[in-house]
Amino acid sequence: MNAMRGRVLVVDDDVGTCEALEERLTRRGFAVVTRTDAREALLAMEAEAFDVVLTDLNLRGQSGLWLCEQVVGARPDVPVILITAFGSLQTAIGAIRAGAWDFITKPFDMEVLALALERAARHGRLRDEVRRLRSAAAETERFEEMLGSSAAMRQVFALLDRVADTDSTVLVTGESGTGKELVARALHRRSRRHAAPFVAVNCAAVPESLLESELFGHVKGAFTDARSARKGLFQQAHGGTLFLDEIGELPVTMQPKLLRALQERVVRPVGGDHDVPFDVRLIAATNRDLEAEVSAGRFRSDLFYRINVIPVAVPPLRARGGDVLLLAQRFVEKFAARGGRPVKGVTPEAAQALLAHDWPGNVRELENAMERSVAMARGEQVALQDLPERVRERGARHVIVSVDEPSDIVPLEEMERRYILRVLEAVGGNKKLAAQALGVDRSTLYRKLDRFGGGSGE
Question: What pLDDT was estimated at residue 57?
């Protein structure tokens, strides 16, 4: 086994049974400690940490039910599985009332027992993680409204902290729903311009015929219905920050006009005869690969280089690991407070489903899912059945490489190639994010892809 499946405390008053279980479970990847008495088992739990307790129901001295009650009372984070030769309904009811995670009747199949132990251990770890997140959410690493403890987000926070109090133009890239506008607002709040306006516009949402007037303003009579002069967004943001969202959607006809404004630091209102100076910090964002757009002739290369002074790549949620649970906890608190609901967190089963989902809609999808789940919850925790169906049923994508023959084992370089290509697939082919996830610079990634025959273009 490459990874331990869990630490198990086995309790049975028959030494032979303890030895047999220890030998068989160890072969299946568990770390096993055995005891023949319930009180000795409690002492062992005080000295060592266990993921799950496996105990026979009938022990000499105190019973397995008694041990279960003691463990549940003192260590509710450690699941208990009871083994019994009496598979009656009353036995099951007694085990559940005692707080048992599960019970198994003799004779049992070792694979069934191993699976039950692994599930219980995973449940216990998730329950502990959920409990930790409730207290850690307020203390986790953050940059303004953005939360995250993953390595990917710590790198983003470090970069933002270094460039926030400058006037350098920033280009924020990332998939839809990753929080690119949050990045822009956070940069504004941390800058020396924080007391001045933050003005945002979605370039894809403004009709092409109105975009020039929206950005640069117009004079009275410039066009039909222009009954009075109007300041454009560049002037409205004077002294502050202008955020151009979805800049990759900017019409080709507008691109040279925007380039001139950024280079000259002046705008000319539609219908006007004179240039008007402005003082703004520009932050742009896109979910497109602008280098590919430049190659395709849909985006001017000179404009790209003008706005790509400081690139900030926001990772997709599927590349942020445990941040999923951290953000889910924060959204639970937000929507519970807003709706006056008693919900405080998520169950381990719900947490497991949240971690398994690949979140194609990123943080926006997670936020919507948790708003719905808080509304559906019947108690103090969001349960599995409260989650949207797509989250309950859609697991994460995995690559499974089975090796049936020694000849199937591939060289290390081939394994590296497969892993790099898998990371590229996970981040939608974005080589910037892939390099970040792999912990290498882009030139190194390009060299490897060239060697593998994968090309170096974006």
Answer: 87
